[in-house]
Write a structure and sequence with these properties.
By secondary structure, this protein is an alpha/beta fold. The chain is 39% helix and 19% strand. The chain folds into 2 domains: 173 residues, HUPs (Rossmann fold, 3-Layer(aba) Sandwich), CATH 3.40.50; 91 residues, 2-Layer Sandwich (Pantoate--beta-alanine Ligase, Chain: A,domain 2), CATH 3.30.1300.10. Strands 1-4-3-2-5-6 form a 6-stranded parallel beta sheet, with helices on both faces. The chain has a 3-stranded antiparallel beta sheet with strand order 7-8-9, with helices on one face. The longest helix is centred in the last third of the chain and has 22 residues.
Length: 280
């Protein structure tokens, strides 16, 4: 299948209006490109729920801080289109920055709740406001019935879910389990930056999250288990931003033993920042 390429909001709305006129529902898969099998799994899961799937590709400048190099973010439109077409995606929305943020654009979504949990937001303070602003626009622009997000970016999943609920955007946000390599490494566009040695080192993040989860299930205090995993990763040469045990829904620090838990981690292997998480 060759997806239809839509570069303007007007073209997007013509296509989705045609779908609606035929009684079709559809899912949206928001991405920044650099498509890999984690993204195509979101398309596959979208096809199980909806008649059509549209993927958006937009490298959002509003979620990059001044010290983060927007220009170095990987871009491969032809490769992305081919992969998404093979996955069965029906249309791809590829807006320009000017299309998304025209002259005079002055609105930003401001967040609290899971966006202020002291995890990603501690190290990238403006990140989720930028994410929520563009995702709110994409939800409204596409008018989709479902939005497919991977659980690898777990805090992001909880932020956009809360945002859509709070703003009464009529879309169902669906979280899809993290897609992993055969050896357990979470699929990520950033993995291409890892050297061979760093690629092997990166496996320890998932391994010690699993170890911490086992300890928690055996009765170890969640914060004790998380701190031990962080120390172990640091001893292996990682620069650890955090390893945390949090309420799986609110991302708050858990207060009692009956709460659903999620272990969440971010650490640097060399110059590459990796994130991962697992349920407990």
């Amino acid at each position: 299948m060759k997806p239809k390429l839509l570069r303007t909001l007007a073209a997007l709305r013509r296509e989705t209006a045609r779908w609606r006129a035929h009684g079709l529902n559809y899912a949206v898969v928001p991405t920044m490109g650099a498509i890999h099998s984690g993204h195509t799994e979101l398309v596959t899961q979208g096809l199980k729920r909806a008649d059509r799937v549209i993927t958006t590709i937009f490298v959002n400048p509003k979620q990059f801080a001044a010290h983060e190099d927007l220009g170095k973010y990987p871009r491969d439109e032809a490769g992305d289109v081919a992969k998404l077409g093979k996955a069965g995606c029906h249309a791809i929305f590829l807006p320009s920055p000017g299309e998304m943020y025209p002259h005079g654009f002055a609105t930003t979504v401001s967040l609290s709740g899971p966006a202020r949990a002291g995890l990603e937001d501690k190290f990238r303070p403006h990140f989720f406001d930028g994410v929520a602003t563009v995702v709110a626009k994409l939800f409204i622009q596409t008018g989709a019935d479902y939005a497919m997000f991977g659980e690898k970016d777990y805090q992001q999943l909880k932020v956009v879910t809360r945002m859509a609920k709070d703003l009464d955007i009529p879309i169902q946000v669906v979280g899809i389990p993290t897609v992993r390599e055969e050896d357990g490494l979470a699929k990520s566009s950033r993995n291409v930056y890892l050297s061979q040695d760093e690629r092997q080192q990166a496996l320890a993040i998932y391994r010690y999250l699993m170890n911490a989860a086992d300890r928690i299930r055996s009765g170890t205090n969640p914060q004790t288990a998380a701190r031990a995993a962080a120390r172990k990763l640091a001893s292996l040469g990682f620069k650890v931003d955090y390893v945390a045990a949090r309420n799986a829904e609110t991302l708050a620090i858990p207060k009692d033993s009956g709460e659903p838990l999620r272990l969440i981690a971010a650490a640097w292997a060399g110059k590459t920042r990796l994130i991962d998480n697992i349920p407990v």
